[in-house]
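Our consortium's second objective concerns turning raw sequence data into structural hypotheses that experimental partners can test. To show how far this objective has progressed, the report includes one record in full. It was chosen at random from the queue rather than selected for favorable results. The single chain below, 127 residues long, was entered without modification.
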Amino acid sequence: MADVITIFESWNVQEVYLKKALLAENGIQSYIEDEHMTQISWHLANAIGGVKLKVLSKCALQASQVLGTSSLEAKKNCPECGSEDILFDQYHQLFSLFLSLLLFLAPIAIKKNKWRCKPCLHIWQEQ
């Protein structure tokens, strides 16, 4: 399976579709993740982080230039091991899910904004 990178996240599905159309117009394949989950189980949308637009890792830099934004994951390396296999954790997903369930399914999002390296499990925050 090819490596994919989250290039854009939003709670608004229409906004994600507009970004996807812009990428397709420029010849970049992309796909939308968690669209149906956020629409069917909208009360859990905070726990999964909203709707995500993903592209192949080899197209991430070009896609971020087309969208006019810097990709969350396109240009970063782990400061410990130098790996490019990193994730940007924007929300405390399990904690948000637990609080949402505890408070009668009221959606709650708790920000953390940290980077996490998959191979060495190093966690850091951008200064």
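The partners drew two points from this record. The first strand starts at residue 4 and ends at 10. Residues 28 and 59 are 7 Å apart (CA to CA). Both points have been shared with the crystallography group to help prioritize constructs.
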